[in-house]
Amino acid sequence: MPKTPDYFQNKTIVITGAGSGIGRATALVFAREGANVLCADINGDAAQETVTQVNDSGAQALATSTDVRNRTAVEEMVDAAKSAYGGIDFLFNSAGSAVRRSTFMEIDDDLWKETYDINVNGVFYGMQAALPYMLETGKGVIVNMASMSHKRGGPGTSIHYASAKGAVFTMTLGVAREFASQGIRCMSISPGPVETAFQRSAATSEALMEQFRNDVPMKRFGQPEEIAELVLFMCSDACEFMTADTVYVNGGGGWR
Fold first, then answer.
1. Above 60 in pLDDT, residue 60?
2. CATH code for 12-246?
3. What pLDDT score does 196 carry?
4. Which residues pair with 142 in a beta bridge?
5. Tens digits of per-residue pLDDT, 72-106?
6. pTM for the structure as a whole
7. Sheet of 246-249, strand order
8. Would you please indicate which residues are annotated as catalytic (active-site) residues?
9. Local structure of residue 247 (DSSP, 8 states)
């Protein structure tokens, strides 16, 4: 994966949403490569479970109970990684949620605000907290979780979520270009449907799940480990000219 053998040894990644799904899978992939992992999640017990799995693999990990909607909590998360491991090399803003499915006219102020608090503010706070540490060393990689939905708009079920992920896409592009000359790379990932608890937490119906699946030419959902391996590649030294872009991972679907 990386050009340099043992590239990730003793480097540190902070992962939000690390208590399950893509976040947990990414923690385990980076642990496999010898990285230190700070596992943050609003569910502290779930984060600790991920840490236990990481530690069982022989790597070093630390759990924090972090609500990414709270700037102070995010700053404390980043400070904990710096205190424990001496620095921060990578940040993966994986935490996110559609909260619940809704038609456009039924989106109320509370749903709109909560969607943006989790998906946009969480990424914003994470980057503002981590960037000073990265700028001190003149290097660092940030990967943000966008979504294929920003291409489709989420009509009928999740315009609020698609809009928020569009903001993540745009914010990533701006940060990447602003800090590119200072050794920072910043990218996003825009997956199609992935087999995680995300769909259940948003109360996605079986009919809608089947619609999502049928829209993918491979006729399956992605797996969290597939996204995790992509995060590893993006953070590696395999292609350090890569920044600002989003990477679409969708089994060939999601465009209509």
1. yes
2. 3.40.50.720
3. 74
4. 91, 186
5. 999 999 999 999 999 999 999 999 999 999 999 99
6. 0.94
7. 61-65, 36-41, 12-16, 90-93, 140-145, 184-191, 246-249
8. 161
9. E
